[in-house]
Fold this protein.
Amino acid sequence: MNRLAGVTSPYLLQHADNPVDWWPWTPEAFEEARRRDVPVLLSVGYSACHWCHVMAHESFEDEQTAALMNDHFVSIKVDREERPDVDAVYMEAVQAATGQGGWPMTVFLTPDAEPFYFGTYFPPEPRHGMPSFRQVLGGVHTAWADRRDEVAEVAGKIVRDLAGRELAYGDAKVPGEEELAQALLGLAREYDEARGGFGGAPKFPPSMVVEFLLRHHARTGAEGALEMARDTCERMARGGIYDQLGGGFARYSVDREWTVPHFEKMLYDNALLCRAYAHLWRATGSELAKRVALETADFMVRELRTNEGGFASALDADSTDPATGKHVEGAYYVWTPEQLRAVLGDADAEFAAACFQVTEEGTFEEGASVLQLPELADGEGDLDGERFARVRGALLAARAERPRPERDDKVVAAWNGLAIAALAEVGAYFERPDLIDASLTAADLLVRLHMGPDARLSRTSKDGRTGANAGVLEDYADVAEGFLALASVTGEGVWLEFAGFLLDIVLDQFVGEHGTLYDTARDAEQLIRRPQDPTDNAAPSGWCAAAGALLTYAAHTGAEPHRTAAERALGVVAALGPRVPRFIGHGLAVAEALLDGPREIAVVGHADDPATRTLHRAALLATAPGAVVAVGEPGDRELPLTVDRPLVDDRPTAYVCRNFTCDAPVTSVAHLTDRLAQP
């Protein structure tokens, strides 16, 4: 029986034709394990995961291995992007037991869902001290059959240990000057001055940390914070982690130099980085930052937009190499000198090789090179702008003829919320109404397909079909963040209203005692532990994202319960920020907004008056941390910040306030900019 055939997850559908008798995560799967008196084999991954594909080809497509799995286990396949709660609970156990984690994640459970043996990727044959997957299967089966008491004891101990990890940071003091200064010092210690970024290989784009650094500089004038943000962004933009032809970022770099990426492209990375580069441009006027922000926005719309108007989760790392016919990592993106000559001819190929650092030795596998751009182009350096643009366009067109990486068409609510915020802001900053339109279309899709009549969110959809899994905290927080950004950019109060619906559910369903937050709703499926994690991973934690959205909503509306909840949630930042700043960057950025107010900016004027649009754009370009912007017609009551704000001398007027106490209104861009530049 093919139980995966009707699911919406592209990852599960990739496994639907395996000889393994897969089950989705359902109560029936655990009932089957009880009936057969066998353990559960839980395999967790996602569609763009390279090593997930490797293990699938080596083991899950192998008839003999599948027979062992079918005979001795009930095997459950989980898409971590659809069920982040399941992934989080068992990844915590894997990391506690082994000191590391990753995907594919392989966990053996009792029929009561209690874990007792863990791993990630297992090879088909013993390798580098690792047992083969078949050896693991055999060993677990023997332990279950012959040492059941020992298995039960291990499982019970693990569950008790997980239950004891409840976080109690709520109601702690909110982070102040001292904690944020200590966090900055901690980041400076870990900063890689030679290459940008933090720590060693592998190196992930630190988008949330960049946001904190930009906000800290804006509030305090600390040049070291701006330097770390600017240099990190420049290094990434010039390196192989950035797609020098088509725009957009890969998930991470396998080396410290940002040269060779792990080639999968994730929506959340690109949404976060698009916004970070736009904010860097806002702070510095960097042409490089502007170019990368726009190219990344265009990449998301061109490559990830679905037929329904949402944004797909990811592009795979692997594709078919036309030369060999093999499905390998990076084949779509890398070049050899010979391939350059075939497309460009000798003279332009030599120019392109010099520009993009393509060498005979190569920087990747089998003599191929990942394109880099150590010098800047077209107004940013000394390169021949016209020639560079022509060569780049020719290579992009030639690359488009290669077999493309597969796309995971699943629409994840949280990541679409991040994309909505990025596209709305970039569209407003650079006067690109098409990007704002794309943001609005995606927001409409979330309201229409993901939000039920009670405003409860579904985590995913695909091909216009809503997925079965409930939204988690990051979904509510990030979608609310996207709607709040749209409200500021468009002046349409309905987006503020939708954000309020979602954040009311956060207060009702996700907040625990003393202000702590949980990743799953109070009425969600009960796992062996209710997950909660305030630390950032590749995207902001639901905990800190909720704090940010609650604070912004309170600044728009004056809603005291939402501001109080945000302040209580930020207690975790006071505790963790000075100790592990790299892993709570979003919380630190929200704390900067809280210390600054955040500022509330109301722009009142007639929509058809160009002066209103100019004043509104100047407000949006304010670097004051977390500044909230509302724009409306005189007498408009859609947005609370514009209520009872009259025009001055019948001219468009801006009001700058903190905690709803306002300075004298201004009518010129220069006066508004000066006002917002003041501490």
Summary: The domain at 177-317+407-596 is CATH 1.50.10.10 (Glycosyltransferase). The mean pLDDT is 93. The two ends are 65 Å apart (CA to CA). The chain has 25 helices and 18 strands.
